[in-house]
Amino acid sequence: MKQLFLLAIFTMTLGHINAQNVQGGNVNQYNNASMSLLNTDSKLLLGGYGEVHYNQPLDSDTRYNGTLDVHRVVMLLGYNFNERTQFISEIEFEHVTEVYVEQAFLQYKLNKSINLRGGLMLIPMGIINEYHEPTTFNGVERPIIDNTIAPTTWREIGVGVSGTILPASLKYQAYVINGFNGYNNGAVLNGSKGFRSGRQKGEESYISSPNFAGKVEYFGIRGLNLGLSGYFGKSQSKEYNGITKNDDMALASADSSAIGISMVGLDARYITGALQLRGQFYYANISNSNQYNAFSKSNTTKTNDLGSAMMGYYAEVGYNVLKTVDTDLKLMPFVRYEYLDTHQGVESLTAKNPAYQKDIVTTGLTLALSPGAVVKADMTFIKSGADDKAAKIFNAGVGFFF
User: Fold this and answer.
1) Contact by Cβ (8 Å): 306, 180
2) HEC sequence for 111-152
């Protein structure tokens, strides 16, 4: 079933792309919150986004309470020091009581195609980690693969370059950044939550080895945006702290507490008329997982089950049924199929857990009252390899972005 669904979306995409007249070089670039501020000429830059959610598990045999949550309210503040130097920040309030800094970086424009950046920045992996404002995606909650493999909102401290090469219809980003917290008095990364618990978020984070993250986007075909992203490096470990550099035994022991990560992402967004298509794919290869799990157990007696590979993807189709109506409203029925397996590969000391393989179908409606205000509702069905039936959740919410 899932293969037929993906094939249908792929066929529709090819058909519409082939039908497009690409003469004229009409581009399809996207802006998130920070990009919108960077493109503003005012001295003081202000913005914000947020969402309020209702989540209700449904079961024919069991009654569950629902949850109502001010999931997040994010305030954006920036400043243009001059035509070349800019500062961007995002202050996030989650679940009313939690406060985070989501971004805080300086940008210096060398020329029209090269910008230097430094500070706390979003990792450019996939779609959602950079474009996670509630008006930019369908569904009340973000896709599950973007919670686990590329764990939005994933940000770290680093430096790098970004820019747009208009003649080639390319946008690029390349950063040297801090890596995941992998070992801190015990293993942090595992099969259940994937990489999510490893985000350091710039919160008194530590570094034992630098990592690299980069992305290239192509937008030269009308309505189409294609992305290729990558993340390479090692997890960070506090076991390295204080080791004498010529102590080979201690260094070998610390090496067992770190893993190597090579992650690639592919994504596509395509809009033609009322039809919207998008898809995303992640594959993460993890080296040294056997040693990492064994080291954790030998030091904490707790069994850890990080796999040697993770994979996830989704395909989504939506259609604005009000496209031909004389109204500013947009009503988008959509359906998204998603697949996740944090035990896509396991090494000899780890047993593959079927519960970590999930098939997810989300279908619902997005009503855009304006470009910056949405009302959403959907049903999500989650079936793991260890369950006989799918879990069902009804979600509803409102969101804004300005």
Assistant:
1) no
2) CCCCEEEEEEEECCCCCCCCCCCHHHCCCCCCCCHHHHCCCC
The model carries a pTM of: 0.91
Nearest Cα to 189, choosing from 312, 284, 93, 71? Answer: 284
Q: Is the peptide bond before 13 cis (omega within 30 degrees of 0)?
A: no
Angle 291-294-295 from CA coordinates, rounded to 5° = 80
Determine phi and psi for 19, rounding to 5 degrees: -80, -15
Residues sharing a CB contact under 8 Å with residue 64, sequence separation 6 or more, in sequence order:
56, 57, 58
For residues 176 and 210, the answer to whether their CB atoms sit within 8 Å is yes
For residue 250, give the H/E element and its range. helix 248-255
- C-alpha 276/C-alpha 351 separation (Å) is 40
Give 248-257's long-range contacts (Cβ < 8 A, gap of 24+).
253/295, 255/288, 255/291, 256/288, 256/291, 256/292, 256/294, 256/295, 257/182, 257/183, 257/187, 257/292, 257/295, 257/296
H-helix or E-strand spanning residue 367: strand 357-370
Instruction: Give yes or no for a contact between 258 and 234, defined as CB atoms under 8 angstroms apart.
Output: yes
Q: CB–CB of 296/306 below 8 Å?
A: no
Distance CA(158)–CA(231), nearest Å, equals: 13
Structure tokens at 383: 């079936």
Three-class secondary structure of residue 386 per DSSP: coil
Q: Could you state, in chain order, the average pLDDT of each consecutive group of 10 residues for the chain (402 residues)?
A: 46 41 52 89 95 97 97 97 97 97 98 96 97 97 97 97 95 98 97 98 97 97 97 98 95 97 98 97 98 95 96 98 96 98 95 97 98 97 94 98 96
Please state the three-class secondary structure of 6-67 as a single string: HHHHHHHHHHHHHHCCCCCCCCCCCCCHHHHHHCCCCCEEEEEEEEEEEEEEECCCCCCCCE
Compute the Cα dihedral for 376, 11, 228, 289 and give only its sign: positive
Burial of 96 (0-12, 13-18, 19+ CB in 10 A): exposed
The domain that contains 69 carries what CATH number? 2.40.160.10
The answer to whether 78 and 85 are in contact (CB under 8 A) is: no
**Cβ neighbour number for residue 176 with a 10 Å cutoff:** 13
Please give the pLDDT value at position 31.
86
pLDDT score, position 14 = 39
Domain count, the chain: 1
List the domain range (segments joined by +) for residue 66: 2-401
